[in-house]
Write a structure and sequence with these properties.
The chain is of the alpha/beta class. Helix content is about 35%, strand content about 20%.
């Protein structure tokens, strides 16, 4: 129910590093879900907490947590909620907003997302009841000392003027906050506070200003800032690191890896493969394909979890894996996140690549998505103008160069091929494995 972007582990690191027990009051900037505000209240009951944000989501909660109310109305795609809320107390309206934010994840016109949106709409009162229950449990007496709806930089100025400590979690990229709440803003009516859209390029200046002011602080960012050393570093398998800058002599560094499931397997041995070999493709949990990718792909590649994961076997020997994700931009398409091939030679990667678009595999994808898939898209990063394993199987659609690395970022697309995994094997076997200078039958 409470959405958030600050990792729990980062909050734990912050509590271990920053001397909050010596603070009398704190101005929390960009409170968001009030995750940090609620943790501080629980750990330091005498600390005066002044929270801040600008979104309808946070401001409605901020008013609730300070015993006040905010006037707002649901409209357009969320207009049906008003009839449900008629005569209900303010906490129900705030809970409805939290449910609406969850629904915003399914705002796309893609049929998959539309079905989920309708599901929420048809069962909204059930979700609302659960939301009210969760909000009621989070309503600790005196949770917030005050709440300011406005620019977080103004909140910082107020903190410095009063000698208050500062904790801040500004957006990592310009316009990120606005994008996160765009659906809610488009389907509600209220009087938002004025503020300037924050540009993260200003973070160095903000940090310098706060540091020179002499007040205690902890500022959260994804940037390494010249002239400052982060006292908190939190890294996961994702691209974005989390750094904390604070006035403290202590420090904390944490790096996390994914949970994978090591499996017992026999790697492919092409000298055991013949024209009578059989292919088997099976769906597996993401932990299995994550393990295969960790073993056979470069450690420099940040791997993301897929929605649909398959392993490929020839005569029960592991050949590779396929990992797909939903394509939110096209309802009749699926995105190939990863196609991993074990070492073996003889253009084995061509076999795996062609399997990624064959009907046998895509039929299993369709069974999960409940609609027909017509195309598969994927992306390759290469120093060359094309990726050879996709050549002749996928069509090159877009190619652009990464200015930082000089590598080509290539988008490929292909229609589903009406063939089975065994037919793909027969094609690959005849073309690449059998014949002169290749393995005998």
């Amino acid at each position: 129910m409470f959405l958030g972007t600050v990792p729990n582990a980062f909050v734990q690191q912050m509590l271990a590093v920053v001397d909050f027990e010596n603070w009398e009051r704190v101005h929390v900037c960009c409170s968001g879900t009030f995750k940090v505000d609620r943790v501080l209240r629980k750990r330091f009951p005498d600390l005066k907490i002044y929270s801040n944000d600008v979104s309808l989501y946070s401001t409605a909660l901020g008013r609730l947590f300070t015993g006040a109310e905010l006037e707002f109305e649901f409209t357009e795609r969320l207009g049906f909620i008003e009839a449900i809320l008629h005569g209900e107390p303010y906490i129900n309206r705030v809970a409805a907003l939290l449910v609406a934010l969850e629904m915003s994840r399914f705002k796309s016109k893609h049929p998959y997302y539309q079905r989920h949106f309708r599901y929420y709409e048809q069962r909204f009162e059930q979700y609302l009841e659960a939301g009210v229950g969760k909000l009621s449990k989070s309503m600790e007496p005196g949770l917030l000392t005050g709440y300011f709806a406005g620019d977080w930089l103004i909140h910082i100025d107020r903190a410095i003027k009063s000698g208050s400590g500062i904790v801040a979690f500004p957006p990592f990229y310009k316009g990120g906050y606005e994008a996160q709440f765009r659906f809610i803003d488009q389907n509600t009516k209220w009087s938002p506070p004025p503020y300037l859209v924050y540009d993260p390029e200003r973070f160095h200046d903000v940090l310098t200003k706060v540091d020179r002011s002499g007040v205690p602080y902890c500022l959260h960012s994804d940037q390494v800032v010249d002239g400052f050393k982060p006292v908190i570093e939190h890294r996961t398998m994702k691209n974005v690191p989390h750094f904390g800058y604070a006035r403290t002599a202590r420090g904390s560094v944490r790096r996390f890896t994914r949970n994978t499931s090591p499996i017992a397997y026999s790697p492919i041995d092409l000298y055991k493969v013949n024209r009578r070999s059989t292919v088997r493709i099976g769906e597996v949990p993401h932990e299995v394909t994550d393990y295969v990718r960790d073993v056979y792909l470069s450690a420099d590649i940040v791997q993301r979890r897929g929605n649909l994961n398959f392993v490929i076997l020839i005569d029960e020997m592991l050949v590779g894996c396929l990992v797909y994700n939903w394509n939110r931009y096209a309802w009749n398409s699926i995105y190939l996140m990863s196609d991993v091939t074990l070492p073996g030679g003889f253009k084995l990667s061509k076999f795996v690549t062609r399997l990624s678009i064959c009907r046998e595999v895509i039929s299993m994808v369709e069974a999960r998505m409940l609609h027909r898939i017509e195309t598969i898209t994927t992306t390759a990063i290469s120093r060359h103008p094309m990726s050879m394993k996709y050549r002749g199987i996928y069509d090159l659609k877009v190619r652009k160069q990464d200015e930082d690395t000089g590598k080509n970022i290539i988008t490929y697309s292909a229609p589903v091929r009406e063939e089975s995994g065994q037919q793909v094997f027969n094609w690959w076997y005849r073309k690449y494995l059998r014949g002169k200078n290749r393995l005998p039958d």
